[in-house]
Amino acid sequence: MNTNSNIRLKANPNAIRLFWGYKKSELTKEIFYKELGETFMPGTPVALAPSGLNGYLPAVLNLDEGLKFPDEVALIVYPTVELYNEARQNSLIGRLYTYSHEGVFDMKQSRGQFPGTVENPIKHGNIDRWGWYVSGNHFDWQRGNSRLLVLSSEKNLFEILISFSQTIRSQLSQFRIDEIIVMTTASFASVWFYSQDAELTFDLNTISFPIEGVTIHRDLKSLPFYLRNGNEPLKIDDTLFVQYKFPRELKFYI
After folding, report:
1. Predicted local distance difference test score (pLDDT) of residue 51
2. Tens digit of pLDDT for each residue in 140-175?
3. Res. 5: pLDDT tops 80
4. Looking at the chain, which terminus has fewer C-beta neighbours within 10 angstroms, N or C?
5. Is residue 4 part of a domain?
6. Secondary structure of 65-97 in HEC code, one letter for each residue
7. Are the beta carbons of 168 and 208 closer than 8 angstroms?
8. Each residue's pLDDT tens digit, 102-124
């Protein structure tokens, strides 16, 4: 496995799995956080890195339960879609990982999908939810920094964020943003900003982010969390956005 911090292992943006997870109703918030932090989250790279996992950036949102928004969102990054499908369909560990979601999430509501482009955002097959990336470049998602916005609006967020994405695409380098990933319904959205070397501390007005009529529930900066022996628990008490750091297999990038 790769432990050399100077090697950049890049992933195709088409292979970034976007996930919204809803807590199982029978779990208390405390038990949900304990299961996520001690088992499910650290177990994701431990289980999937041998099958090619490139990066894993989960966030616990801790929003008002009355809002009926996701409890967790995540980016699960593979080098290619083919490797993701291979891990999910033809790997026993991958299949076990898929089933493990049912231990913490209500899988009737919780769903993942891949992103499309700004020109052709991908709509989920069963719900009115769309995903897309803006730059389309290949990056190492264990490098750099990410910033996550969690939004809602009575206006059409899909239309608002498509327009924003189209406008900012030619200005990304000006703000030292390397990628933007969006997953949105008409009323709720998660927007990930990514930079290889910038801290992403810009004011949203500076990038002309559409704030009017939009509620920003969370504005989170990713925190690095290192998995060295594969059994490091993550203590979760509140809102948290993590960028996992873990060894990877070089053979998937050759």
Report:
1. 93
2. 999 999 999 999 999 999 999 999 999 999 999 999
3. no
4. C
5. no
6. HHHCCCCEEEEEECCCHHHHHHHHHCCHHHHHH
7. yes
8. 999 999 999 999 999 999 999 99
Q: Containing domain of residue 246, as a range?
A: 13-253
- What residue ranges in 185-222 does DSSP mark as E strands? 188-195, 214-221
Q: 221-225 contacts: CB < 8 A, separation 24 or more? A: 221/145, 221/146, 221/147, 222/57, 222/145, 222/146, 222/147, 222/148
Among the listed residues 126, 2, 129, the one whose alpha carbon sits nearest the alpha carbon of residue 55:
2
Nearest to 71 by CA among 112, 105, 39, 102: 105
Task: Give just the sign of the alpha carbon dihedral 196, 201, 202, 204.
Answer: positive
CA separation for the pair 1, 229 (Å, rounded): 13
**Torsion region of 117: left, alpha or beta (phi above 0 gives left; psi -120 to 50 gives alpha):** beta
User: CATH no. for residue 125?
Assistant: 3.30.70.100
User: pLDDT band at 6, cuts 50/70/90?
Assistant: low
pTM above 0.90, yes or no: yes
Has residue 55 been placed in a domain? yes
| Residue reference for tokens 């033809």 | 90
SS (HEC) of 119-175: CCCEECCCCCCEEEECCCCCECCCCCEEEEEEEEECCCHHHHHHHHHHHHHHHHHHH
Domain count for the chain: 1
Structural domain contains residue 3: no
